[in-house]
Structure formats: structure tokens, C-alpha cells
Amino acid sequence: MNYSINPDKHELEAVKGEIEEIIQKYSYSLEVENVELSLGWQRFEKDSNVVSRDNNLTVIINPERERENLEKNVLRGFLEIEFMEKAEYEELRYNWQEIARMAYVRARETNLRDEEIEEPELENKWGQLKQKLDNKSEEFDEDLYVSAGIIAESIGSIYSEKNQVEELTKARKSDIIETGDEAFN
């Protein structure tokens, strides 16, 4: 019987080394404690993916692709954990909470990576999303999810400009609406 077990020791050590470099790069500014990081190995369309839950971060690597998004994905995973540690709610139940989390993550990521946020024309998408903020998170509209990330970046950039990124962990639905209206109206 022929078989293989992946990753091999060399591949595993290489990925662990890359992730440790990312952690070291951002450890000075990440505000998380006792994070358990797990590695997964899977062939799928992306180069890497990160799933965060509680203080567990699972990094899934596609061994057949270059890991160009690994740093961004790992950083976002840590920032999602950071947000949930600071948030005034234990889980994300509503779309507005998802937007607050995304805005926080994108604003912190932008600050840490010194990136500029590009603001495309999103007034119509914001209007559609605003009407769905009270929906339960599991009902989140897939078509709007992509736009929600860009909308969250815009909302996060407003908080960032005011040096109030931490306020996103305490944000209410009305705060998200007010800031979204400021960004898109």
C-alpha cells in the first residue's frame, strides 16, 4: 500500500517558522493572551485561511500555493480574538456586531501594516446593509458579505482617524449606523 502523510517535517517547520515571524513582528502591539494556535493542511482555492474562536486560532495552509496572504490572514485572526476579548458581548449575534468586529480588525490592521484604505462607491451597498443590521448573524447575506468588509474598512478608518479604534469594542448598532452614514452620505 502506498500512502503519504502531509505535511512532512520540513514543510511543517517552514510554516511554523513563517507564523512565528509574523507573531514576533506584531507581538508588540497585539493585545491578546493565551492564544492556542493550530495548523491545518488542506488543498483548497486559497493559499491560507484562518479561523478564530475564543482564544484558539487555526491556520489552514494550502501546500500547493504560495503563501502571499498568510501574514494578513494570521494578523486578522489575532485581531478578531483581540476584539472579542474586549467586546461587551460574548458572541456575535447580529450583523451590526459583525460590522463592528470587521471595522475594528480592518482599522487595527491598517494601522499596524501602514496601509491606505481605498474607498470605492459604496453608498448603495451601505443602504442595503444598513437595513439588515438587525438580522441574526447566521442570516448574513452572502452577496453583501464582500461589500461588508469594504464598508467595515471605511467605518474603521473613521474611528482610526479619530484615534478611537478601541471604541469599536463598545460600539452599539446606533454607533455603526452613525459612522456608516458619515462615511457614505
Can you describe what's shown?
This protein has 185 residues and is mostly helical. The chain has two domains: 9-69, no CATH class; 95-184, no CATH class. The protein is built from six helices and three strands. The protein has helices spanning 9-26, 70-86, 95-113, 123-130, 142-161, 173-184; strands at residues 36-41, 48-53, 56-61. A three-stranded mixed β-sheet has the order 1-3-2, with helices on one face. α4 crosses α5 (142-161). The longest helix has 20 residues, at 142-161. The termini are far apart.
Present the secondary structure layout.
Blueprint: H1 9-26, E1 36-41, E2 48-53, E3 56-61, H2 70-86, H3 95-113, H4 123-130, H5 142-161, H6 173-184
Parallel strand pairs: 1-3
Antiparallel strand pairs: 2-3
Helix pairs in contact: 1-2, 2-3, 3-5, 4-5, 5-6
Gist of the model:
By secondary structure, the chain is mainly alpha-helical.
Descriptors for this entry?
185 residues, 2 domains, 3-stranded mixed β-sheet
Q: Main sheet: which strands, in order across?
A: 1-3-2
Low-confidence parts lasting 5 or more residues at pLDDT below 50? none
Radius of gyration: 18 Å
In total, the number of domains comes to 2
Summarize the main sheet: 3 strands, mixed
Helix segment count? 6
**How many extended strands?**
3
**Alpha carbon gap, first and last residue:** 65 Å
